[in-house]
Write a structure and sequence with these properties.
The chain contains 7 helices and 4 strands; from the N terminus they run E-H-H-H-E-H-E-H-H-E-H. The protein has 160 residues and is mainly α. The strands form 2 sheets. A two-stranded parallel sheet has the order 1-2.
């Protein structure tokens, strides 16, 4: 099961649930949604899943600690993409999908937040031997194949 945290949060916002109303305030500013709200959105999906690919979680050291307490992460994938390419892709997505949270100012803020809050996780998972880095500038199909192969390895009986 693929669980994309950003999609979950946007669903909550779109449905105007109490959680979604709270989440919308952060998303429109390009800020990370507080850990507690992320956990509230994720928990029902994780309880129902027998294996999953988490997309967009954890994003902070606190979320990593919560993940350590609640679930076992077999592999952590870092898609390595240059900042210039990220900006280009997000602006293209804004034009294509009409995403209100993909403006130049919000993108710049998200990239600063990533550098401060998320980038430290790369070293954490590297030190633990859980990190796999993938060139995120390849074709989507190539990235998908690599991620699915990693998930299959993690699910195989010999994965330990």
């Amino acid at each position: 099961m693929h669980i994309a945290v950003g999609d979950l949060l946007r669903q909550e916002v779109s449905a105007e649930t109490p959680l979604g109303v709270r989440v919308a305030e952060y998303m429109t500013r390009g800020e990370l949604v507080p850990d507690g709200l992320i956990i509230d959105a994720l928990t029902p999906r994780l309880v129902a899943a027998e294996g999953f690919i988490l997309d967009g979680f954890p994003r902070t050291l606190a979320q990593a600690q919560t993940a350590d307490e609640a679930i076992a992460l077999d592999v952590v994938v870092h898609l390595d993409v240059r900042e210039q390419e990220l900006r280009r892709r997000l602006l293209a997505r804004a034009a294509l999908e009409g995403r209100a949270d993909d403006t130049p100012d919000v993108i710049a803020r998200r990239l600063r937040v990533y550098a401060d809050a998320t980038a430290p996780l790369i070293e954490l998972y590297r030190e633990r031997g859980q990190l796999v880095e993938i060139d995120g500038e390849q074709a989507v199909e190539a990235i998908t194949d690599q991620v699915l192969a990693l998930a299959q390895q993690a699910l195989s009986p010999s994965a330990g």
